[in-house]
Amino acid sequence: MEEFVYNDAIVRKFLGATLLWGFVGMLVGLIVAFQMVLPIAVQWLEASVFSGPNGLTAALRLLYEHEWLSFGRLRPLHTNAVIFAFAGNAIFTAVYYSTQRLCKARMWSDLLGNLHFWGWQLIIVSAAITLPLGITQGKEYAELEWPIDLAIAVVWAGFFGTNFLMTLVKRRERHMYVALWFYIATIVTVTILHIFNNLWVPAGLVHLFKTGEMPSAELMMKSYPIYAGVQDAFMQWWYGHNAVAFFLTTPFLGMMYYFLPKAADRPVFSYKLSIIHFWSLVFIYIWAGPHHLHYTALPVWASSIAMVFSIMLWMPSWGGMINGLLTLRGAWHKVASDPVLKFFVIGVTFYGMATFEGPMLSIKTVNALSHYTDWTIAHVHSGTLGWNGFMIFGMIYWLAPRLFQTELFSKKLVAAHFWIGTVGMLLYIIPIYVAGITQGLMWRAFDETGRLAFPDFVETVTKLMPFYWARAIGGTLYLAGVVIGIYTIWRTWKNRPTKYDEPVQRAPALRKEYRDDAGERGEERLQGVVWAGRAMDKFVQGKWHRRWERLPIRFTGWVIVAVVVASLFEIVPLFVIRSNVPSIASVQPYTPLELAGRDIYVAEGCYNCHSQMIRPIFAETERYGEYSKPGESVYNRPFQWGSRRIGPDLAREGLFRPSGSWHLNHFYDPRSVVGQSIMPAYSVFFRRDIRFEEIQARVDAMAMLGVPYGEAINSAPEMAREQARAVAAAIIDEAGGFAEIRVAIWDLVLGRMPTSREEAIEALSQKKVIAVISYMQRLGTDLTRDGGAS
Amino acid sequence: MTLLALTVNDLSIYPKVGLVVFFVVFIAVTVRALRTPRNQVRHLASLPLDDDRKAPIIDAHDEGSARA
User: Fold this and answer.
1) A358, containing H or E segment
2) If we measure between CA atoms, which residue out of A341, A350, A479 comes closest to residue A415?
3) Which is nearest to A22 in space by CA: A76, A66, A87?
4) How many CB pairs under 8 A join A and B?
5) DSSP labels, A603-657
6) Is there a contact between A780 and A652 (Cβ–Cβ < 8 Å)?
7) pLDDT of residue A667 exceeding 60
8) Chain B environment of A411 (Cβ under 8 Å)
9) Distance CA A654, CA A779 (A)
10) Which residues of chain A have a CB within 8 Å of the CB of B50?
11) Of A70, A276, A311, A509, which one has the greatest count of Cβ atoms within 10 A?
12) Where are the domains of chain B?
């Protein structure tokens, strides 16, 4: 017998971090929910209640117009915080607790555990600082810039992965329980996804190596992906969907297979079903990503395969859900009195609902209605608030008395959390389902004359305000439940003993030799039978799989094979067959100024509200113009197709709205040109200068990736300055002279009114707004140039 | 440029092979699962239950601070 002690200190740390970041991430979510309704509310308050701006409305404006708090910057902070900080720390809590028990071994290295914990918290803090500053890759759920990406790879694979796998290797329980399989799949697949979706060229490093000069911090953090356009979109959603699969699903299934039987005090309903559940899920999920790109410029074959595999996902997902719920057979009476089981039952039920809806949304005809609408947001939140959130809190309430070695502070408070959270969740998702379907139907509605019934996009936004208010209230309730939960755990922690009891565990070390006698009867039966029959019998006896289940490295290897093979079937043809992305002669690289403007667009997170992808659907081509072609995106690094339309699509903005002065006024005060707009004002564009000298490094990095920049390779800043002056002059002329542009704009640009046209052009041409406008004016115009395709 | 350009027919082999590979894996795993001896399944399913001491949730606050 060997003696050992479990390392629960590390579990307690991760549990505390889960609660802290859960509160922060959801608070940011609540702020962005209110940002949807505040612009119109403040406008109404100033017009109808206060007769103009006052201290209160100024404070409220700050909440959605301060540059660090704008929706485009804050929404990625919300998603990253709840996924990687809240759910991430919860996953680590579950893994560190259950792996030790299932392996009958202490985690392999306390040092690696601590490096993992503090490294992960440092990554989260880095995200919380960089995202509000506009430092982002501009790809959903992969926004964090390259130095943080490197840190994630080291902490996830180097510290966490090594510690976990070595614990498996050193375990004292022969068989690896199914929860451990799900953890293995999580660790290896997230590593693969993270690495291959985050291959980039850092612009600052290019500048440093080329000139020997240290770039600014902003430039140093900037990178461009090695993929462009269609391929970037494909890689991003291969990553994005599988982040949901392998960060928000497989580790939580591991959690379900461990903690639900513990809480119900009975074994999982069907261990056989869990085996089929695991392999089917791992193999199918990886194909499903491109269903996020139906009707886009992604080749039809890729999104069609994704749809087929998404529908096939119904089987394993519901198999898992049924397996979870039936684990409670004979224990349903406990659900009424045990708050932990209540959380688990609702969590697993929401898993079933979300995994029914996901495949449904992947069906092309459903997706044509749902995509870009709030329906997706409702779907995601039924999964995250219901499945992830409730599984996490169920686990925390089960763990707290064991980790803190005292009774849970108050079961009534836990019940209050449960009911307030459930009501809040329903109040969130039901109105947002209605909002999404309303939005989709309004976009495609035609009147009796055959014209769009709601041609003005903002009509389809204002219609949703009541639902957005309901969502904000629902979110407030859900967060209130979380606060109750934090209070309960805090009070439980306060009642902890002065010194934790650390019971010594005893288990024999595994013998090296092991004989699996499960198939012996078959062997006897087959005495004298031919080799093929013997091999077939060996196969059906399943000894090969039982062997893997005792060999963690080999098991991990087969999971990698399943994930990589499935991925390659989609990735290889997309990358090697040129006909997937037909080139268009008239599509040229962005000018240096447009590139700088595009980088600002990316930094502000405009893709969170605006798509740049017109689908070949009649209602869309009527509203936005010619549908988007794959060849139009070949210089887009990163692609900016978006996934949601809180504002209109911008793919043809340069054709639809070529006026520079319109954009100038719109960025200064969106509601001055679109009465009910909910877009925040971007006064920062008028205050901050374009860093012309740094544009050269941006162009150089793009050129390194194969973008044919020609003369711009040596003279990007000069070319940008020249174009900026031309854009500024055109805006002033269009307005009827600089005196016709609002005084408030000149106050931001110059601190006073300019005294001459030349001074006005020079001052305006220095500002970021000119770079962004030049990018807006370029969007979608390539096809109408000479040589453009039709 | 037409929609025709988006449909690359000679790629149909990839999804076909993919589906075959999936079904082979699926059948193999199903066979393995169904053939697992019952006593072994019972042992495997009960692994989480024999690894920890019990600590039932007691309501300290609501039931007169059981710790006191």
Assistant:
1) helix A339-362
2) A341
3) A87
4) 170
5) HTTGGGT------S-HHHHHHH-SPP-GGGGTT-SS----SB-SS---TTHHHH-
6) yes
7) yes
8) 57, 59, 61-62
9) 5
10) none
11) A70
12) 21-46
CA distance to A147, A196, A211, A638, per residue, from A223 (Å): 10, 15, 17, 9
Chain A contacts of B30, Cβ < 8 Å?
276
Helix A339-362 to helix A314-326 angle, to the nearest 10 degrees?
170
Q: Pull the structure tokens for residue A752.
A: 């006073």
Query: Considering only CA atoms, which of A348, A345, A347 is closest in space to residue A321?
Result: A348
DSSP per-residue letters across A341-352: HHHHHHHHHHHH
CATH superfamily of A2-494: Cytochrome c oxidase-like, subunit I domain (1.20.210.10)
Which amino acid is it at A567?
A: S
| Token pair in block for residue A93 | 């809590």
| A728: nearest Cα among A758, A748, A754, A753 | A758
For B40-66, b/e burial (b = at least 16 CB within 10 A) is bbeebbbbbeebbeebebebbbeeeee
What single-letter amino acid sits at A343? F
Asked if A194 and A153 count as a contact pair (C-beta separation under 8 A), the reply is yes
CB A497 within 8 A of CB A405: yes
Sequence-distant (≥ 6) Cβ neighbours of residue A59 within 8 angstroms: none
Query: Which residues make beta-bridge pairs with A202?
Result: A223
pLDDT above 70 (res B1): no
A526: its two tokens: 């087959």
Token pair listed for A667: 């960025």
Where do the structural domains in chain A lie, given as residue ranges?
A: 2-494, 652-784
pTM of the predicted structure, to 2 decimals: 0.91
Task: Give the C-alpha separation, A484 to A497, whole Å.
Answer: 23
More confident residue, A330 or B57: A330
pLDDT interval class at B2 (50, 70, 90): very low
The domain defined by A652-784 folds into Cytochrome Bc1 Complex; Chain D, domain 2 (1.10.760)
- Type of residue at A159: F
Instruction: Report the alpha-carbon distance of residue A577 to residue A424 in Å, rounded.
Output: 49
Share of chain A above pLDDT 90, in %: 81
Q: CA-to-CA distance for A516 and A522, rounded, in angstroms?
A: 12
Please give the helix or strand (H or E) that residue A262 lies within, else none.
Answer: helix A250-264
Q: Select the residue of B15, B32, B55 nearest A275 (Cβ to Cβ).
A: B32
Cβ contact, residue pair A308, B61, below 8 Å:
no
Identify the helix (H) or strand (E) that includes residue A563: helix A552-576
Residue B56: which pLDDT band, with cuts at 50, 70 and 90? very low
The ipTM of this complex is 0.72
CA A757 – CA A736 distance, rounded (Å) = 11
